[in-house]
Amino acid sequence: MNNPTNVNTSRRRLLQYLAASPVVAAGTKEAIAATMAEMQTRSDDPYIWRPFDPNYLIEKPEDALDVFEFEPVAHKNVGAAHWGFMSTGADGEGTYRANRQDIAKFAMRSHRLRDVTKVDPSVTLFGHTWSAPFLTCPTGRNGMYHPDGEAGVGRAAGRHNIPQGLATNANFSITEVNKARNGTPVLFQLYQQSNWEISKSLIARAEREGCKAILLTVDGLSARKDLQFNRAVRADTRLCATCHEVRPNNPKSPILSSKSTANFSEVPAELWDQKFTPDKMTWEYVKRVRDFTKMDIFVKGITDVDDAVQCAKLGYGVWVSNHGGRNEDTNRSSIACLADIAPAVKGKVPIVIDSGFRRGMDIVKALSMGATMVGFGRPYIWGLGAFGEAGVDKVIQIMKAEVIAAMQQVGATSVKELRPDMVIRAL
Ligand SMILES: Cc1cc2nc3c(=O)[nH]c(=O)nc-3n(C[C@H](O)[C@H](O)[C@H](O)COP(=O)(O)O)c2cc1C
Q1: CB of 301 closer than 6 A to ligand 1?
Q2: Which terminus of the chain is more exposed, N or C, with fewer CB under 10 A?
Q3: Is the pLDDT of residue 2 over 50?
Q4: Residue 365 belongs to domain spanning
Q5: pLDDT (tens digit, 9 = 90+) per residue, 306-342?
């Protein structure tokens, strides 16, 4: 199959060669440079083999035809370092790319001659029936993309009766976001803290605020290599102190201030600097959380079938994820992991999956393969960065409409009717 990324890369190399050539006229070189700049802004998503016009930016959320159309608008609005933080993957970004590429390796066996006039995309999970089988994943510090931040995401997701994961390191607190959601509390994502007293305070707050589930992230190890992100930081001319505390000896080098994270407001100030020791995450730690709270626990970051079976044995929800390709570069996609994990878990515990889901049909494939619900991160961030809460609202509307259409196309009137035998490996 023609790989559009390779085509883009070769084209870019040719343009670079021409731009450097002494025989090419100055005016032509300027035109080439402009074309190269345009190509940088194009989505490198392997599904988009027909690149859309990079100069066409939607002016309002209602104009968006799919979630990808929010991306260039958000890119224009968000500073280079923040954009780099959000949009890149670890190391050579192989996992990040595989997440998208591998969804195309699974195909649906659509069933015709069924009445699909009425389709019900609802799913019951976390003690509630939701209007669609997807959720917005926890992503740290949403204020980076728009002042509406997690509260804006909450208003949009709450309005559509969609679950929302709230990151430990959010700019709005659980209390504020639950208020914004107006009825259904967030799912609270927990990063292990070095001091158990801090973790306890965060978990207790989530439970007191009515949260039904803790998403315990186990793949956030400290040694990830943010290569592309750090390249993007080089390109950002702003002073980091505008958003971060900076190291006194280097005003370009930011410290992520613990004080800027809203969920820590109840943690005693003297403990603030002891946050985050993810390398100590073990099954014993999960048990410790289990013994401390009555909330459901979903172990987020599962990619291996043995770990998934262990979760099922111990009664923890399985959250298949590679963090959107941000933490590791094994090249194994999330959907490939699901193909192993779902048959082994045998429906004993719910399975949530994320990483790379961008279209309704992507979601329908994962549900058919055994996921109970599907999460996405970057698409709602694009919506937020482009138009704030209104952008997130439209992303959710688009995803829901696409899921319903995909269910009709494959011949399912409810999520329960999406079965593993409806998916085959594509050629
Ligand atoms: C900018 C960004 C920040 C994230 N922050 C967190 C976080 O704080 N905690 C966490 O468990 N996952 C975090 N994630 C991972 C998401 O929860 C989710 O696994 C991922 O975004 C799914 O992949 P997708 O972006 O391809 O949809 C983050 C992802 C992104 C893109």
Answers
A1: no
A2: C
A3: no
A4: 100-425
A5: 999 999 999 999 999 999 999 989 999 999 999 999 9
